[in-house]
C-alpha cells in the first residue's frame, strides 16, 4: 500500500509538470500544441541517451550520442532539446496568423517523429525503445529497498514539480504573463499597443516544451524504460483533459486536473470488475477522456478552478463562474467597413 | 528507370487517395473556417462500412462505396448538429472548436477499437487483373481508385460551378459574413457542406482500404496529415488546389519510397508541409495578397 | 497649409480597393498640431478604412501615410503603436477575461518585465510595475471607473468599455491618439466624462484624431473638422465653415 502511494504521488508530480507546461501554451497564450506528447518523448529520449553512456546495463540496444553526463544534466538536456524543437517548429508555422496551422504542424510532427523513431533502430532503439536508463543516485542507493528508493525519487519529482510550479506562478504574475494573456484575449489590440504576438507565442511554446521535456526526462528515469507505446500521439489529450478540467490558465487547476484526470482515470481502471475484457479498458479510457473534454468545454469551459484574477492589491478575486463572458476573436481580422 | 516510371504510376494511385480526403476536408475547412481533426476517423468508418458490405457481405464494391457515403455523410451532419453547432452559436472560439474535433477523433478511434477490435480486417481487392498503361503496370483495383477519384472530384466541381448550392458554398468560403448579408441561408449551406465532406470521407475510406488491402481503427488517422499537407499546399477552401497538391504529394511520396526507407515517406511529406508553411503559407496557388 | 513632412500626421493621396470596390479614393489631409481633429462623414464614406490604414492594419493600394515626417505606410500595427500612435476601436475591444487593471497595464508599451529573462526576477521590474499601477489607478479615476476596478473587461457596459479603451490608450503616453467613434453607444451621462478627458489632453501635448457621427459632440471637442464622403475628402476647417460648404451639404443630404 505504501509503495502504491509513493508510486501514485510520483506520477502525479510528473504529470503536474506536463500539465503546467501545456497550461502555459494553451492556457496563457492560447496556442494549440496537439503534438505535446512528442515533446515529452524528445525529453525522455534525450535524457536517456545523455545518461546511458556505453553501459549496456544488460540490454543490447542501439542509440545515438552515448553520453554519460552527471545528473541532473540529462534531464536538463531533455528539456532544452524539446524546447529547441518546439521553437523551431513554431518559428516556421506561427508566422501565419492562423492558430490551426500550429495545431496541424504539431500533430504532423508528432506522427512523423513517431514513425521515424519507431522504424529506425539506430536513433533510440526503434519501437522497442530504450531500457536500463540510470536513475538518479543509483550508485549511492544501490542497497536501498524499493520503498526507500521510491521515496527518494518521489522527493526528487516533487522538488522538480514545486520549482516549476513556482516558476509558472511567477511567470503568470509578471508583465510577460500579462502580455501572453493579452495575446490570448485579443491579439489585434496587443499589436496596436506595440507588441508582437509572435514573441509571446514563441516564449510560451518554448517554456511549455521545456517543461514537457523535463517531465519526459523524469518519466524515463522513473520507469528506466520508454518505448513507442508510451507516447502514442493521442496521449496528448490526457494532458489536455487535465488542463481543461482543472481550469485553463490556472496553475493550481493544472495540479488538481493532473491529479484527477491522469491518475484518477488511469488508476481507477484497476478497480473495474473483472468481467470487463482487458483489451477494452484502454479504448474505454480514450472514449471517456474525449467525452470529458467535450462536456467540460461545453458546460464548464472555465474548469473546476477558474483562472484567478492575478493577485492585485494584496488580495485574490476569483473569476465568476460565468461561461457567458464573450470569448475574444481568435484570428486577426483586418477590420474594415 | 523502370522503377521511376512505375513509382510515378503508384504515385498517381496514392495521389487519388489523398485527393479525395483532401478535397473533402478542404471544402469543409473553407466554409466552416475550422479544421476537422476527426476527418481521419470519418474515413476509417467509411472503410469499415465498405469492408462489411463488399468483403463480408460480398456486395459489389460500388454498393460498399454508396453505403459508406451514406453512413459517413450522416455521421458528419449529425456531429455538426449535435456537437459543433452549440460551440459555433454566438462568438465561436477557434481554439475550442479545434480541441472539440480532436476530442471527437479520440472518441471515434477508441470506439472503433471497442466495436470493431484492433484486428486488421483484410479488404478483398475488387480486381487483381494486371493492366499496362504505357510502361506502367496497374492492377484493376488501382485503376478503379483513379477513376473513382476523377469521378468524385469532377462531380464536386460541377456542383460548385453550376448549382445554386455550389455557388453559395463558394461565396461562404470567400466570406461567410458577406454570404449571409447577401441572403444565403448559411446554416443550410453549412449542413450541406458537412454532408458532402462526410460523403467524400466515405469514398475516401473505401478507396484507402482498397489501396492498402486492410482496415483497422487508425487507418484514416494515419493519412490525416497528408490530407492537411495537401489542403494547406493547395490553399484552404480550394478543392482544385488540394487536388493538384495531392498529385504532387502522391508522386513525391511514391517515387522517394522507391529509393529510401518506407518509414521516411511520411517524413518527406512533413518536410514538404513545413516548406510550404515557410514559403507560401497561403498555399501554392494563392494569389490573394496578405493583409497584415 | 502645412506640408506633408512637417505635419503631425499626413495622409497623402491614399486609395484603397477591396476587390473592385473603392473604399477610399485619392484621399489627402493633414492633421495639425494643437487641434483636436474630427473626421466625419456619412456611412460608407471610408472613415473606418482610413483609420485602419493609419493604424497599420491595412496597406493602402496607393498613397502614403506620414507620421511626424516618417513614412508609416503599411507598417505593422505594432511598429505604428511603438511610434506613439495609439488607437481605440469602433466596437470597443477590451480584454474580456482580464480585470480592468490588467486591461490598463497592457497600455504601456515598453515594460522591463516582459523580457523572457527578466520576467522571473521581480526586483528588476517591480519599480516600473508599481509606477504603472499608480498611473493606472489615476486613469481609472479620471475616466470614472474606479468603482468597478475589480470587474473583468467583459463585465463592463458598452459605454464603460469605451472609457476603458481611452484610459488604456492614455497609459501608452501617445503622441497621437486615434479615437474611433468614442461616444458610440455611450450613455449620455458618460459623454461629459469623455469630453472632459479629451479636453484635458490638450494641455498634455497629446494630439487627438477622432471619427464620430454625433455632430454636436464634434462641435464640442473638435477645433478642426475633416469631412469625407464616398472615399474622398470634401472639406476641412472648423465645424461651422465645413457645415456651410455646398459639397458637404449635398453629400449629407444625398445620403440621407
What does this protein structure show overall?
- Chain C: This is ABC transporter ATP-binding protein.
- Chain C: GO terms for molecular function: ATP binding; ATP hydrolysis activity.
- The complex is a heterotrimer of chains A (337), B (292) and C (256).
- Chain A is mainly alpha-helical and 337 residues long.
- Chain A has a domain of 223 residues.
- Helices cover 62% and strands 3% of the residues of chain A.
- In chain A, a hairpin with a 2-residue loop joins strand 1 and strand 2.
- Chain A is globular and about 60 Å long.
- The relative contact order of chain A is 0.18.
- The C terminus of chain B is likely disordered.
- Chain B is mainly alpha-helical and 292 residues long.
- In chain B, strands 1-4 form a two-stranded antiparallel sheet.
- In chain B, helix 6 packs across helix 8.
- Chain B has one domain.
- Chain C is of the alpha/beta class and 256 residues long.
- In chain C, a hairpin with a 2-residue loop joins strand 9 and strand 10.
- The longest helix of chain C is centred in the middle third of the chain and has 17 residues.
- The mean pLDDT of chain C is 88.
- Chains in contact: A-B, A-C, B-C.
- The interface between A and B is large, with 52 and 49 residues.
